[in-house]
Automatic annotation (TrEMBL):
Secretion signal, residue range per the UniProt entry: none
Native source organism of the sequence: Pseudoalteromonas amylolytica
InterPro entries per record: RHF-like, RHF/RaiA
Protein known as: Ribosomal subunit interface protein
Transmembrane segments: none
Length: 118
């Protein structure tokens, strides 16, 4: 999985890149069809915001996390992304199951019509 990491009023150092790689390693294992993540870390008014967007099974998923410190903001967004991906995966699995159709066999229908039900 490719991670596109950028910063807005934040220096993206090697330590930050390593932390992000570590946080999303588990996500890459659980969702192997996930190709890339776009992550923007920004600092506005002494708060850190992390925005993550990706496409999973044809649906665009975007989450935001915030915190007073950068690393918890990244963890918050990672947790929200994991929940969103699990929700989408559940929706896809629910659509795979065929709903049972209740039909009566033709033979039973013919027998009922022949019966005198008065």
């Amino acid at each position: 999985m490719k991670i596109n990491l950028s910063g807005h009023h934040v220096d993206v150092t090697d330590a930050v890149r390593a932390h992000v790689q570590e946080k999303f390693a588990k996500t890459a294992v659980h969702f192997p069809s996930l190709l890339s993540l776009d992550i923007i870390i920004s600092n506005e008014n002494k708060k850190f915001y992390t925005e993550i967007s990706t496409t999973y099974s044809g649906v665009r998923i975007a989450v935001k996390g915030e915190g007073d410190v950068m690393y918890p903001a990244i963890a918050n967004a990672a947790k929200k992304l994991d929940a969103s991906l699990k929700h989408r995966k559940g929706q896809l699995k629910a659509n795979l199951h065929n709903k049972p159709v209740s039909t009566t066999p033709e033979i039973a229908h013919e027998i009922i019509q022949e019966m005198d039900l008065r």
